[in-house]
Amino acid sequence: xxxxxxxxxxxxxxxxxxxxxxxxxxxxxxxxxxxxxxxxxxxxxxxxxxxxxxxxxxxxxxxxxxxxxxxxxxxxxxxxxxxxxxxxxxxxxxxxxxxxxxxxxxxxxxxxxxxxxxxxxxxxxxxxxxxxxxxxxxxxxxxxxxxxxxxxxxxxxxxxxxxxxxxxxxxxxxxxxxxxxxxxxxxxxxxxxxxxxxxxxxxxxxxxxxxxxxxxxxxxxxxxxxxxxxxxxxxxxxxxxxxxxxxxxxxxxxxxxxxxxxxxxxxxxxxxxxxxx
Length: 277
Fold this sequence. Notes:
By secondary structure, this protein is of the alpha+beta class.
């Protein structure tokens, strides 16, 4: 058997295994399974909300599941481990099953969808969308969509962030299909990320190549020019002070020894300077 056929065969078997487990462990809150091949055998990890129902009293339930998987799917030495889902509101398969259970009990489909969306958004999801199709209100089939928050539809982000769950429910009107998409906030890729080397280089003022970044170089050049201007102004002020101290001050006219100081005659206002009236 070629490698391509072997991969297709394993994927088809895993799909059948997932459908069987979702139908068998429906009451336990089945949320998915992981299948890994080991040299010893096949390791299967089950994610459920109520692990006690899967294990059973004294391990009877898990032994029964192990024997059925070994005989029905031809798994060699299956080793099953059960894990509890910490936040079931962010698991699309679990929430799909809850919508199906509500509709089977007689709850209106629109009421069940809105309750599910509010529960998912309150649990901290980035966004959610419920699509329900089939004979909802009349003999003619149609579909309805209910969404909340941000939900990427295409690209690599949608493959990493969005998780999809699909289930079917048989009502009085006919078969109804339910598809639930949940965008997880924790798995959203960051737009940028600093490494330890970049943080150290940024703190030192240089990049990994040893060059100063352009913005930082412009800022440093402006600081240098400003400091040079300040130094020039200080030098000019010091030079002016030195010149002022070296210029001689004007001295008063010296009088000869023995000469009496000349008396200045007072001139009456509006009169003759010779004293004549």
